[in-house]
Design brief:
By secondary structure, the protein is mainly alpha-helical. The protein has a domain at 52-251: f41 fragment of flagellin, N-terminal domain, CATH 1.20.1330. The protein has 6 helices and 4 strands. The strands form 2 sheets. It has a two-stranded antiparallel ribbon with strand order 1-2. Helix 2 (43-97) runs antiparallel to helix 3 (104-125), helix 2 (43-97) runs parallel beside helix 4 (179-199) and helix 2 (43-97) packs antiparallel against helix 5.
Amino acid sequence: MRISTSQMYQSHLGRIQESQTQMFALQRQVMTGKRFERMSEDPVAGQRVLSAQGLQRRLEQTDRNLRHADEYLGLTETTLGQISDLTQEAKTLAIQGASAAAQPESLQALATQIGEIQKRLVDLGNTRTTTGGYLMSGQDTGTRAFTVSGTGITYNGDDLPVNVEIRPGETMRVNLPQAGPLVTDLYNRLENLKSNLLAGRTQDISGTDLVELEDSRSQVNAARGSIGTLMQTVANQKEQTQRRIDDLTTRISEVQDVDLAEAMTNLQLAQTAYQAALTVTARASQLSLMDYL
């Protein structure tokens, strides 16, 4: 069957267009580093990438949650450590005040130092987070946790849990439970110690105040230990989450990213095929013209 000049020309033109499309696609791969950019180019691989990216976004949110939890817990642990140090400092002063040889002037000076410790305790109780909220106010982070009026202290927080999702479907309380009683009890015990120092009641200092301060310090250290355990849990979860994020990044890259060396080779072949198609079409057009001469 004889092929007409028009049919032959259309055939050559089709080859040019096909070669040009392939060449442009390979150029785009080389420029972007991606095998495909639209789902229509590879629906199966595209769906795998979308699924992996969706999971990766959820894991990245979990990672942000864990970093927030780590920051909250770390600040709480540091604050409790400083409160423990204050309690030990108060105990040292109480031991000095319990001495039968202590003079009224010395007891007055010791009472003044206890008053300063109380002020520092309140400041620590009103520690703020990096976002400006009060660390020990529970969920009511905009309210100052502790206020002092006269010789008394008041807890203004709500002691409700501040929860953070550390893995899908699982939350962790990151704020200190019973922060109010922990600080107010210690403050009141320091107030009693101060009163006994001013009154020269050395027996009450040795028989009651020292025992109560040691009890407060034990409570603070126990709370600090619990926070430390939570910090370790968060650290382990952060490591696992980051590993999963890295694995997904690798999987997405394996599906979507192009082998640059291979793409460059294919592009050169496509460019050669395109030039060849142009040359063949040009020659065919010349031969067709000769038919009319």
